[in-house]
Design brief:
Helix content is 31%, strand content 27%. The chain is an alpha/beta fold and 233 residues long. The protein has a nine-stranded mixed sheet with strand order 2-1-3-4-9-8-7-5-6, with helices on both faces.
């Protein structure tokens, strides 16, 4: 299987997804939007991963490639490809499917629980989650669930933490790919957001205190990727 990912900033890569690919003998390539890389032909990959970033999906003047990226994501989905979106990536997918992206009630940064939606309890692409589990968050915006999509999960301050579309597309507002190293990069490069403070904004020290948490979410990502890969067979 070949995985291609869309990267929006140098400090936010695919984290543990690379480890999963390496163990399974899968190949990986990327488009660095910030560097002006071109998009590959859609038939060149099996799974598209759309990663996160600190920008808003409507900041076209500062990031003109966002419009082109949205068009590309739409083409990939219409081609019935497997697509995984993480944080900003999930918001981009929601937008192209008709689910508006809006400001969240408050920023959610750090380790907080989510609850899986009852309607996906038996869905093969939702079994990577328990009914309630802890995941890593770093977002301020949120999305509405697009028409035809199935609601995946919610948290105390964010009703829409993910969705599944057409049994091929999974969008996660939260992070499961984050490693201790990638979290440290986020803390270093997005320190201004932590300085804002808030009931659901943890300190860098709190986020880095327990390395076992990263291993736990990475295992959930492995289970999701296994399930998505199974849909390609």
């Amino acid at each position: 299987m070949h995985i291609h990912y869309l990267q929006h900033v140098p400090f936010e890569g695919i984290g543990s997804i690379q480890d999963w690919a390496d163990r399974g003998g899968h190949t990986v390539s990327r488009t660095r939007l910030y560097a002006g890389d071109q998009f590959p032909a859609i038939d060149r990959f099996d799974l598209l991963v759309v990663m996160g970033g600190p920008m808003n999906i409507y900041e076209y003047s500062e990031y003109p490639w966002l419009k082109v990226e949205k068009g590309y994501i739409k083409q990939v989905i219409e081609a019935d490809k497997a697509v995984l979106g993480v944080c900003l990536g999930a918001q981009l997918i929601a937008d192209v499917l008709g689910g508006p992206v809006v400001d969240g009630r408050e920023k959610e940064i750090g380790w907080f629980d989510i609850k899986r939606s009852a309607e996906v309890a038996d869905h093969p692409l939702a079994l990577f989650l328990d009914d309630q589990c802890e995941v890593f968050h770093w977002h301020g915006d949120t999305f509405n669930i697009p028409p035809g999509a199935i609601h995946l999960a919610s948290s105390g301050v964010c009703d829409n933490q993910g969705f599944i579309y057409n049994d091929r597309v999974v969008a996660l507002q939260f992070h499961l790919e984050t490693t201790a190293e990638s979290a440290a990069a986020l803390i270093e490069n997005c320190a201004g957001e932590l300085a804002e403070g808030g009931a659901h904004i943890q300190s860098g020290a709190e986020m880095m205190a327990d390395g076992a948490r990263y291993a736990a979410i990475n295992q959930r990502m492995n289970r999701l990727l296994d399930a998505m890969a199974a849909t390609l067979n």
